[in-house]
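Practice problem 4.
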């Protein structure tokens, strides 16, 4: 069974271990109250060009990066470089956490509701693409969260009947 890389289990709220959702995940060590700030998502700040160079979607069978888009200028935090245990919090379509961006460059993960010991932490990745997703896109950004309301993708989809602005 895969173990967390050394140094990533320093968080007092959760530990990193094997996940049913994907690879490694973050699991609550104790009861976590709604609104608790759990961890900052950290790593190397890079621009879109560098992100594309490091993670070529055309060479991946399934989307998998440790990138978190920040700001309005096409920047991202790459937690694969200098990242912490936050990079192991998996996606869920019905998450128990949320990611909140501050100052266009920092991201913190907060508990959306009370989380019980042993429960896997998750937030909605809500990846966005600039066009209507194809079947191939949906397969590339597949979701395996297993939530009753799973939308089947980590992409943020427009609601049916939603009007364009």
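Answer key:
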């Amino acid at each position: 069974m895969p173990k967390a890389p050394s140094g990533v289990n320093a968080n007092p709220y959760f530990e990193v271990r094997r996940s049913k959702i994907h690879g490694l995940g973050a699991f609550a060590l104790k009861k976590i109250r709604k609104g608790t700030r759990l961890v900052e998502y950290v790593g190397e700040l890079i621009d879109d060009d560098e992100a594309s160079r490091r993670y070529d979607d055309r060479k991946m069978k399934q989307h998998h990066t440790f990138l978190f888009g920040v700001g309005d200028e096409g920047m991202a935090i790459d937690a694969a470089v200098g990242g912490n245990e936050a990079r192991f919090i998996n996606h869920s379509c019905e998450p128990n956490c949320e990611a909140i961006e501050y100052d266009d460059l920092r991201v913190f993960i907060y508990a959306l509701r009370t989380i019980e010991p042993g429960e896997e932490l998750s937030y909605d990745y809500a990846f966005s693409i600039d066009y209507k997703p194809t079947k191939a896109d949906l397969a590339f950004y597949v979701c395996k969260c297993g939530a009753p309301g799973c939308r089947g993708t980590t992409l943020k989809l427009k609601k049916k009947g939603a009007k364009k602005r």
